[in-house]
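Hi there,

I know you've been waiting on this one. I reran it after we fixed the sequence typo, so this is the corrected version. Both the input and the resulting structure follow.
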Amino acid sequence: MLKVLAALSNPHRLRVVAALAAGRNYVSQLARDLAMSRPLLHMHLKRLEAAGLVVGHLELGDEGKAMKFYEVAPFDLHLTPAAVAEAVRTMTAAPAAEERTDQ
């Protein structure tokens, strides 16, 4: 759940998901549609893919050129107090902060 929430917490990634909700698209066209550079789009797509929110497929175009297509993966996120409590149970404890002494 943390990966999904972190991925969706960025407005650019929300725009990517919204654009792909209309249908699959290839990277270059998606970058043009979103007025975003391809390197920046790739970074956001990688984060969304790691969270399981989008899926990428490499396909050959008409001219034999490799094109990476992305589409939204089916997901249904229900954020409830019980879901948060369950997610917390699966987290590892954060390391204790070192004591700070002022000299």
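Quick highlight: Confidence is low (pLDDT under 50) at residues 98-103.

Best,
R. S.
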